[in-house]
Specification:
Elements lengths: L6 H10 L18 H8 L4 E4 L15 H13 L5 E7 H5 L3 H8 L4 E7 L7 H13 L5 E8 L5 H8 L4 E8 L2 H13 L5 E4 L2 E9 L2 E8 L5 H11 L6 E7 L8 H10 L2 E5 L2 E5 L2
Parallel strand pairs: 1-2, 2-3, 3-4, 4-5, 5-6, 8-9, 9-10
Antiparallel strand pairs: 6-7, 7-8, 10-11
Length: 283
């Protein structure tokens, strides 16, 4: 990674004028870096990170200016090299970045990690929608991480359609409505392309393929309402379900009918209720 104090020299001598010896990545861009230089450098790199790479780590860390972000997003569109972008943005900066530009840039990347810092409730909705639409139309984008956004106003259709075109989705620090969670989980369970989904309290991962093909494991680590829990158990029992492993970490199952528990366990390869009982360990 490039030291900020040497950023100008490294970009001119490595990122623009010749080969870089810093793994084609820049971290911790500050507001003193000229916009034109940053945009030109980004077009000659494979990966660039503007800000910190998680919502929790962005507190107290200055975000790039809107002009810097726009310059790099434009380079994402024009560059044939740039594949990975991590971008954190505050309230004022994000409002000055066109959502359409964000969407176009996302469609040219392989991986996009976008973090909102101390945003108001509705800030970033249009940007997230533009990015999700690009997930559907892009043949390149396979990894998407959105952090710190309230996605409660985003349509379920946008979320589920995006899940069928990505390999990795990390929305673990985003807010959702209860009506969105169940269809998104069900879509990810049935998706033949998605390998990993992270939501607050939920993780779905693909297991090594066996005779059954694309198999998945789901872990639930927070209590949820029966409106979500019961349909998830029903999903386990469907013939088309790819879910073969279910891990419940301290989930209260008292309200789940015993017949449904047994039926779900029968269809799973393994199901565990941690710290309470082992539902099944079927061969």
């Amino acid at each position: 990674m490039v030291d900020v104090s040497l950023l100008h020299v490294d970009l001119i001598d490595g990122g623009i004028a010749g080969e870089s010896d810093d793994d084609d990545a820049i971290d911790d861009i500050n507001s003193e870096v000229p916009v034109e230089l940053l945009g030109r450098a980004a077009g000659h790199l494979q990966a660039i990170s503007l800000g910190m790479d998680s919502t929790l780590e962005t507190w107290g860390i200055p975000c790039p200016t809107s002009e810097q972000s726009i310059a790099v997003l434009k380079s994402c569109i024009s560059s044939s090299m740039l594949e990975h972008l991590t971008l954190s943005s505050g309230e004022e900066e994000l409002e000055e970045i066109p959502a359409e530009l964000m969407g176009r840039a996302a469609g040219q990347l392989t991986s996009l990690k976008l973090y909102g810092v101390q945003l108001e409730l509705t800030t970033g909705k249009e940007h997230c929608l533009a990015v999700l639409d690009s997930c559907i139309s892009s043949s390149k984008l396979v990894e998407l991480c959105l952090g710190g956004f309230n996605l409660g106003a985003v349509s379920v259709q946008s979320l589920t359609r995006a899940s069928d075109h990505l390999q990795t989705m990390d929305f673990s620090t985003c807010d959702f409505s209860h009506d969105q969670i169940l269809p998104l989980l069900q879509a990810c369970i049935s998706s033949s392309k998605l390998f990993e989904l992270r939501l607050d309290g939920f993780t779905i991962k693909s297991l090594p393929a066996g005779e059954g093909g694309h198999r998945k494991s789901m872990k639930i680590s927070r209590n949820i309402s029966n409106n979500i829990l019961l349909p998830l158990f029903e999903t386990c029992t469907t013939p088309s379900s790819k879910l073969v492993e279910l891990v419940l970490a301290g989930i209260d199952l008292q309200s789940v009918p015993a017949e449904l528990l047994v039926k779900a366990a029968y269809h799973l390869k393994a199901a565990y209720h941690l710290n309470t009982l082992d539902l099944s360990t079927c061969d």
